[in-house]
Amino acid sequence: MDIEELMLDLELRMEKALESYQRDLASVRTGRASASMFERVLIDYYGEMTPINQISNISVPEARQLLIKPYEREFIKAIEKAITDANLGLTPNNDGVVIRITVPALTEERRREYVKMASRMAEDGKVAIRNIRRDGNDKLKANKTISEDLRKSYEEDIQKLTDKFTKKIDALYAEKEKDVMSI
To answer: What pTM was estimated for this model as a whole?
Structure first.
């Protein structure tokens, strides 16, 4: 693998780590209703564990209310049970056609818990980015065809790439923290 391929590979892997962090962060509740709250809630759909948002339409008619309308009515009970079992702190109301969920306002204590959770996720994301950096540096050291000065230069480039992605994670975390703590 030449150096340009290595740098491109590292950037792609860091981008995937950032996307993974963004998906994780979307599952952290704020005081407002959001369809992304259910991305990790799965139900048994004809033998396959499937996210709710793939078998139903999730809409937000009001700031604190969600409406879930399954594409197939026979799955309404399974969706309701999955939401209850997911421990999201939400109570689904099933009228036989749609599920209505009112998102309660978060207490100060709960907001702080969610901020801590988002902080842990941010740290995990940064660890993933640093592991990719370490892997890139190891590959550089294993390449005996480049000079010491050139290797140092490439390590600096990898560090700049790492800094760029950790700053993105920090910015996403700061935005989420502000969102969670706002009333």
So the answer is: 0.73
